[in-house]
Amino acid sequence: MISEGASLLFEKIQEKLSSLVKISEFDLKEGMLVCGLDAAYKENIGISSAIVLKLNEESPIAESIFREKITYDYIPGLLYIREAPLLLGALNKLSVKPDLLLIDGHGLAHPRRAGLASIIGLLTDIPSIGIAKRLLTGNVIWDNEKIGRIEVAGEYVGIAYRTHKGKTMYASIGHMVTIQTINKIILLYNYDEPLPIMLAHRAVRKAIKIRS
DNA sequence: GCGACAG
DNA sequence: ATCTTGTCGC
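Above: the input entities. Below: the structure tokens describing the complete assembly.
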């Protein structure tokens, strides 16, 4: 449970962090390490995973699993207080330092302009992109059948795209990347859920299942 | 007041 | 996210 006062505190912190987010050019280069992050839950236990792949390769070169007792409930807009500790734990166990983080959740496509992806990027000082399956705030202006622009409070913060199976995904700027970076990532993973995130998702699902 | 609401 | 069987659709 999170008290009303604590929620206000976390919202204030989030607003401050938002002002620290940098939108900057990020060039994808051969050999770069792309890391997918995801988490799953089993009762009061949270499990997270970080899966690292070299750009254009499909076998992980490093991966980690992290488990920790959950202390907070999920509150829309405050996902980070529940999930950031888990993701940081998984990142901390990696044997390598990723060049780019792909995180399940939003970046700037957030009411306070600082979703989980932005916060993880800021705290680790690693460029990041948020990729969510549902929109939390803002609107999508579809340019064509498969690509659209995500706008929040008049700002172009990300790209919405439709998977080959018809599922809409919402990718937004986390930290130290631009819309162009997101465009390249979407193309790189062929308009599907990015492989690193897919593998991280499978890893946590598997880990959750084993401990039951 | 009503509805919406990342994972 | 998670609880869950059969079932609608490609």
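Note for the figure: Chain A has one domain: 4-210.
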